[in-house]
Write a structure and sequence with these properties.
By secondary structure, the protein is an all-alpha fold. It is built from one helix and no strands. It is 94% helix and 0% strand. This is Biogenesis of lysosome-related organelles complex 1 subunit 1.
Length: 125
């Protein structure tokens, strides 16, 4: 009888150990699945951040190139405007010079007319 009780007790202990081992394995499996799901979720976020960073880097490089081109074009425009401004100044100088020459020519013409009118006309012809 004692031997039968001992065997029953050992059998129940073995069942409990097996049940406990089964639950331990299930808990490990569930924890592993949870960990993998969390890691996968984080990896998706990290991967998206990496993709976004690459896109931003590309956009920054493109913007730098465009800014450099715009700067060069602006420098050309400034040079053209300065040249145009200089040409306008030269035209203004030529205009002033032409007015000065015109005034001198009128003065000379007036003097010649005065001299011509002041001389007696010859009747030899």
């Amino acid at each position: 009888m004692l031997s039968r009780l001992l065997k029953e007790h050992q059998a129940k202990q073995n069942e409990r150990k097996e049940l406990q081992e089964k639950r331990r394995r299930e808990a490990i499996t569930a924890a592993t699945c949870l960990t993998e799901a969390l890691v996968d979720h984080l990896n998706v976020g990290v991967a998206q951040a990496y993709v976004n960073q690459r896109k931003l880097d590309h956009e920054v490089k493109t913007l730098q190139v465009q800014a450099s081109q715009f700067s060069k074009q602006t420098a050309q425009w400034i040079s053209m405007v300065e040249g145009f401004n200089q040409a306008l100044k030269e035209i203004g100088d030529v205009e002033n010079w032409a007015r000065s020459i015109e005034m001198d020519m009128r003065t000379i013409a007036t003097a010649l007319e005065y001299v011509h009118k002041g001389q007696p006309q010859s009747t030899c012809s």
